[in-house]
């Protein structure tokens, strides 16, 4: 029997799991645990890079576990979007792990239980996230969610201090509630359609009564909305994230909400394509942006402020999703990858600030730029990136989403574009306040400064830097900052890749063919194509529809070729910075 | 699809009671609510297999419709295991919260307290100076003898709690 590289997809889940088991086995020996954990994650990253290279031009692949064919067995599906998310998430988790090792295993003195649990739990979290990205059926998606949520409960309450327990209880109860909603929806979907396989559901759900479809759709969105922290369901987030250790908060903020968004995008494109509730989604997106960023402005603590900006930027992703167009979805995919990196980086830098200055409260910070220029640089780049200042990737992603909104050209999308711009400016205000107070003002001007900030001379202060900011923590942070810059430098190829991924997801045939096989899809191909061309704008950019729907002609427009199998490949054209053409 | 009405009614009742308990402030009741909800959901999944049928082992000459659909039971088993783990973890958290803060309640978060401080809000019921012993059970146990003190029916529970709080406050002042 011939094996292909993509058949090794399940290893992306299994390697971290085995790593976790071995790490548990060596609970007495921290050094071995560290080596196993780092080794397992590096292996995962390498595997996922190979997988990404494999699907870069090839569309979707499915692995039927234990050889049971699709609607009956468990399938794992990797397509462009899933592969990109896997690679980004593994890179992030690896960097955060190195940071945590540098920090001494996430506050080792608190984790002084009989068993050292940080590393194994961390690997289980990674396995759960990978499983959720690869899941080919709803129930496996639920299991993936539960795996990483359970790991996250443990990580959030690490050490079991009073504040963490308090935050942890809220987080656990809210998460369980959303999981229960998800489970109810799975039950109802099975009752209605008789399957939980995503590809099979995609074909069968459209035969259902429209009212039933709408109910299942909304229930699923509410369940994922809680996990993704979308506006009316987001208030658990700023309350629970900031109390955890810095590396834990960083990986939660970067990844966990994005898995919710991933699930939303996946089900929205595959199971419920079309524009039925797009207006509602857009209103929700706008409110998420504005309420989130207004909350951020009211905060003095950097961690809490960042938690609110996290909520607000989820709004962009929901907006891009609600556009139901290839332009909007491509930008959303790009923005998800960018935002995972940026948000994680900012939380790591905040951890460094807290270590150096003894507090993360902006009112009590000052003079950091003078004391540690490196720290200032590490904060400045991702902060400006978050706000979407032009050369950075945040700008490219936001611009793409707004272009999608402008191309759609209705009152609601214009309102959302305005809200996006406003949110972007307010984000700039929020981060520049931290910059101006924490880094730029003189340390002597702070009203109630930490003693550690008042060194006798600059030489003393720089000496303290060595002790408080070890290279083992600064280097992973710098690595992430570099990665976020790479999103800017390689924005052209990445945007083209995202566009191909978006096209795949809206066409749906690549995914369905991979899971169900060609014969099954051939029977319904015409319906699918009719539906897609009827609903999704500019799927084939050569037909003139693009010009009609996209009055703003930009260099971000795709160059797509349809090959003989009907799947699209994107020409990676030689171009300068993609934002060059947008001015 | 045929649905067992008894199971449906039981499921509805469990979900309703569970949601009611989930809205309580006491963590133990929240936990009980979660247990009820998760079991209600399990019943829901069980019902999606329709009416009971023959065991799903392939035999010659059987109509496909005569077999029981086994998939929901497989899903259900996984869901039970997950819910069990969640409940155990939550129980540990609640116990820890009790050990640390003598709190069996969801406490106000930072934002609540800040807003309350900013507008100078004072809710006599919420903000009154009460003892930290909020359990309904521990007050009734006499620490000296370990016996359970009987609460006379003439004396309503709330009054007993208030009297005890005042007693502890008096002890603090003296």
TrEMBL record, chain A:
The keyword Transmembrane helix applies. Residues 561-583 are annotated as: Disordered. The chain crosses the membrane at residues 6-26, 38-57, 77-100, 112-133, 139-159, 171-194, 214-237, 244-265, 277-298, 305-327, 333-353, 374-392, 412-432, 468-490. It is a multi-pass membrane protein. Residues 571-583 have a biased composition (Acidic residues). It is found in: Cell membrane; Membrane. One of its GO terms (cellular component) is plasma membrane. This is Na+/H+ antiporter subunit D.
UniProtKB/TrEMBL annotation, chain B:
Residues 141-174 are annotated as: Disordered. Keywords: Cell membrane, Membrane, Transmembrane, Transmembrane helix. The keyword Transmembrane applies. Its main location: membrane. It is a multi-pass membrane protein. The keyword Cell division does not apply. GO terms for cellular component: plasma membrane. Signal peptide: none annotated. The chain crosses the membrane at residues 6-23, 30-50, 70-95. It is found in: Cell membrane. It comes from the Bacteria. Belongs to the CPA3 antiporters (TC 2.A.63) subunit C family. This is Na(+)/H(+) antiporter subunit C. It comes from Nesterenkonia sphaerica. The lineage of its organism: Bacteria, Bacillati, Actinomycetota, Actinomycetes, Micrococcales.
